Amino acid sequence: MSSNGIQQKPLPDSIWYKSPALILTIGILAVSSASLFIRYAQQEMPSLVIAALRLGLASMLMTPWVVRKHAKEIGKIGRKEWGLILAAGFLLALHFSSWITSLEYTSVSSSVVLVTTTPIWVALFSPFILKEKSSRMTVIGLFVAIAGGLIVSLANECSVTVSGLSCTIQNVSGNPNALWGNFLALMGAVCAGFYLIIGRILRKTIDLSVYVYCIFACAALFLVLFVFLTGNSFFPYSVSAYLFCLALAIFPQIVGHTSLNWALAYLPVGLVAIVLLGEPVGSTILAAIFLKEIPTVWELIGGIIILFGIFLASRK
After folding, report:
1. What does the alpha-carbon distance between residue 237 and residue 262 come to, in Å, rounded to a whole number?
2. Residue 161 forms beta bridges with which residues?
């Protein structure tokens, strides 16, 4: 039992599981690939359809294995746990739908800045819900990493000249829809924060595979409902668009989110949320390789600051 009242599970006796840093690194690299696949798919598909296919395909791919291996465990889940699973699934659905949709209304920089405030909401609410108090070093690392995230997000919007700092961010008055887009991005961050907090509770009693499968399936059902309520359709699109959604389901969703959800059973939720700030670094590297988007000096500086913030937060 830790000093904050949340029992820490011992790491399993496996060379893979004995290195949470390795698991989190794999998770961040996988999650970082999402921006590539989403950009390709959005050329044809509405954002809600992409989100629904991402979660729906991930759930279908996991169904045969989970049902065969964990059917009895699923049957033993209590009413209280199912309530939390439904809540987490709904929050995850809101996170993906609101964040991806926000990119249709506001600038990418504004959306990314707002959605990466997830650790702030985790740090704000986890002491009240989980009784997990953040250490001073964790708080310092949190704000250092967020500062790096701001630099990465604003790198393409601002430039330094002899006369000073010049920024060309689209403001709300210039784009009447920007306020709605900014709100959607912020809502995505808040939903992700509460999703992580609920996951921290559930992962104490529910097996990883069962937990991830149930959360993904519930989120997929909610997203399918969102698609129909908004009048969108799952057909017809090109084969390549569906393949990009399949890639989203396999790499960022199954590999990435499973790795992060695994970590929730062994590490404080605040630390896992802070490590998520490494996603812009991974996305920048992948964009440079596959999209030929070479990062600017400011993007590199911001990435280094993010990694330094993660290091500070994880020292204890």
Report:
1. 34
2. 164
Q: Looking at the chain, how many residues does it have?
A: 316
Pull the structure tokens for residue 190.
């808040």
Once rounded to an integer, what is the mean pLDDT over residues 103-107?
73
What is the C-alpha separation between 206 and 200, in angstroms, rounded? 10
DSSP-assigned beta bridge partners for residue 167:
158
Furthest-apart CA atoms within the chain: distance in Å: 67
Write the pLDDT tens digit of every residue in 74-94.
Answer: 999 999 999 999 999 999 999
Residues 6+ apart with CB under 8 A from 78: none
pLDDT in tens, 28-86: 889 888 888 988 898 899 999 999 999 999 999 999 999 899 999 999 999 999 999 99
Type of residue found at 113: V
Residue with the two structure tokens 């600038």: 107
Percent helix, percent strand, percent coil in the chain, to nearest 5:
70, 5, 25
The whole-model pTM stands at 0.77
- Which among 251, 248, 253, 303 is positioned nearest to 39, based on CA atoms? 248
Calculate the dihedral angle through the C-alpha atoms of 173, 179, 185, 187, rounding to the nearest 10 degrees. 150
Phi-psi region of 218 (alpha: psi -120 to 50; beta: other; left: phi over 0): alpha
Residues of the chain above pLDDT 70, percent: 82
